[in-house]
Design a protein that fits this description.
Blueprint (H helix, E strand, L loop, with lengths): L13 E2 L13 E2 L15 H19 L13 H4 L5 H14 L5 E2 L11 H12 L12 H15 L8 E4 L2 H12 L5 E6 L4 H8 L3 E6 L10 H6 L5 E7 L11 H12 L5 E5 L25 E6 L12 E4 L2 H12 L7 H11 L6 H23 L5 E2 L7 E5 L6 E3 L3 E3 L2 H12 L1 E2 L1 E2 L8 E5 L4 H15 L9
Parallel strand pairs: 1-2, 3-15, 5-6, 5-7, 7-8, 8-9
Antiparallel strand pairs: 4-10, 9-10, 11-12, 12-17, 13-14, 16-17
GO molecular function: aspartate-prephenate aminotransferase activity; glutamate-prephenate aminotransferase activity; L-aspartate:2-oxoglutarate aminotransferase activity; pyridoxal phosphate binding
InterPro entries: Aminotransferase_I/II_large, AspAT/PAT-like, NHTrfase_class1_PyrdxlP-BS, PyrdxlP-dep_Trfase, PyrdxlP-dep_Trfase_major, PyrdxlP-dep_Trfase_small
Pfam families: Aminotran_1_2
Length: 479
């Protein structure tokens, strides 16, 4: 749960011996946190640090043992070594650890709604336990949930599927990875517009494919230029990943732009589209959502991913799904059968209840969206009044991707030089104790992502902290 602080004008500044937090002046209070995992975090997860310490300890023991003893080969797969850890997960873990150590950090890094799972959904899960619905479910999902998903996709998205064209998984993230593994061969290219969700390029690397990053502009609302797409398609292009509404920008692709992209896709027989629609219900009028598979000729080309985490505030239930042509879905099903097997039987009962709330989640979801919109409006107005800030107003999701690059290049007394999005995030955590995610994690180093999946009171306090941290700084260039 996000932290709400009322006395935002008098914030104690706390120093840590960690490169992530930067240096501190002598006047600041210094706290020593006795957790091994805090050593040299610098946006690395606590778990990663634990693993590093374990490997160092293992090597030391091996070296001190008998010279006749064979040392263990602790090398890792090149595929795994090519993958970067998730910065959003790392920063969330880091901020949580700081809060547990007594530091009043406001955490705006994770993309997790602050609302409780709606009562009717939670009750369905509770009843599943009470009624003994606690055994393995079919690998691809229960027929009850698959049928409900088919109905939802037909009524809300205008795309028709049968139950054998859908696989339910342990979250949309798993569905995306399985799709990439199912369709990509070594050497294939995965086209990813930037800014992107942090996991897309790493999933491509796990499939031995090459991520091809296509930049977008804040002046274009971070939307992909069709001409840029067409000029970067090669015979190796296998998958185009689209996310609308977008994480991290909140941008929504208009139907006309998607139609232009579809025309380009149609010219290239090998090119498929993965449409990540996890935020489809968190959208602000007049923006509307269009499923890529609903466009002419795109059903055969599209793998549609969705889930229950965001719109229904069911992050911990771990429930998502993928829909598409049967041969691709069968491949995803096969991968799942040899990894996690089916999703939780309890979560699937809850998923059926969620889809039973009505069109687009009914009043339960619309009330959450109303709150997200109020928060967005507050942040857009507030940050828009700060000097040297560029904003593209989000049309969906619950993220604000703000260009703070005018502050780069400044020397800050007691901290050092603000060189990029990561050092600015370190400065804001050190000076204002607000945890944000640097834009370089999403492929755009000029920006910082703020999640407004927190109460309005918390967001008001966080803005005052950020404003206070920046108030003494003058933009390096005028904008």
């Amino acid at each position: 749960m996000a932290i709400s602080l009322h006395n935002s004008t008098n914030i104690p500044r706390v120093g840590f011996a960690s490169p992530f937090l930067g240096s501190n002046s002598a006047s600041k209070v210094s706290i020593s946190v006795s957790l091994n995992s805090f050593s040299n975090l610098s946006f690395k997860s606590v778990e990663t640090s634990r693993q590093q310490l374990y490997r160092i300890s293992a090597m030391s023991k091996a070296e001190s043992s008998s010279s006749n003893q064979v040392k263990v080969d602790i090398s890792l797969s090149p595929r795994v070594n090519s993958v970067k850890p998730s910065k959003t997960v790392a920063i969330t873990d880091h901020a949580t650890a700081l809060a547990q150590a007594g530091v009043p950090v406001i955490r705006l890094a994770a993309g997790e709604p602050d609302f409780d799972t709606p009562a009717i959904i939670a009750e369905a899960g509770i009843n599943a336990i009470r009624e003994g619905y606690t055994r393995y479910s079919p690998n691809a999902g229960t027929l009850e949930l698959l049928t409900a998903i088919c109905h939802k996709l037909k009524e809300e998205n205008g795309i028709s599927y049968t139950p054998d064209q859908i696989v339910v998984s342990n979250g949309a993230k798993q569905s995306i990875l399985q799709a990439v593994l199912a369709v990509c061969s070594p050497g294939d290219e995965v086209i990813i517009p930037a800014p992107y969700w942090v996991s897309y390029p790493e999933m491509a690397r796990l499939a031995d494919a090459t991520p091809v990053i296509l930049p977008t502009l804040i002046s274009d609302n971070f939307l992909l230029d069709p001409e840029l797409l067409e000029s970067n398609i090669t015979e190796k292009s296998r998958l185009l990943i689209l996310c609308s509404p977008s994480n991290p920008t909140g941008s929504v692709y208009p139907k006309k732009l998607l139609e232009k992209i579809a025309e380009i896709v149609a010219k290239n027989p090998r090119l498929l589209v993965l449409s990540d629609e996890i935020y489809e219900h968190i959208i602000y009028a007049p923006a509307t959502h269009t499923s890529f598979a609903s466009l002419p000729g795109m059903w055969e080309r599209t793998l549609t991913v969705n889930g229950f985490s965001k719109a229904f505030a069911m992050t911990g239930w771990r429930l998502g799904y993928i829909a598409g042509p049967k041969n691709f879905i069968a491949a995803c099903n096969k991968i799942q059968s040899q990894s996690t097997s089916g999703a939780s039987s309890i979560a699937q009962k809850a998923g059926v209840a969620a889809l039973g709330l009505g069109y687009a989640g009914g009043e339960v979801v619309s009330s959450m969206v109303k709150a997200f919109r109020e928060r967005r409006d507050f942040l857009v107005k507030s940050f828009g009044e700060l000097e040297g800030v560029k904003i593209s107003e989000p049309q969906g999701a619950f993220y604000l991707f703000i260009d703070f690059s005018s502050y780069y290049g400044l020397e800050v007394e007691g901290f050092g030089k603000i060189e990029n999005s990561e050092s600015l995030c370190r400065y804001l955590l050190d000076e204002g104790q607000v945890a944000l995610v640097p834009g370089d994690a999403f492929g755009d180093d000029s920006c910082i992502r703020i999640s407004y999946a927190a109460s309005l009171t918390t967001l008001q306090a966080s803005f005052e902290r950020i404003k206070k941290a920046l108030i003494s700084l003058r933009p390096a260039v005028s904008v």
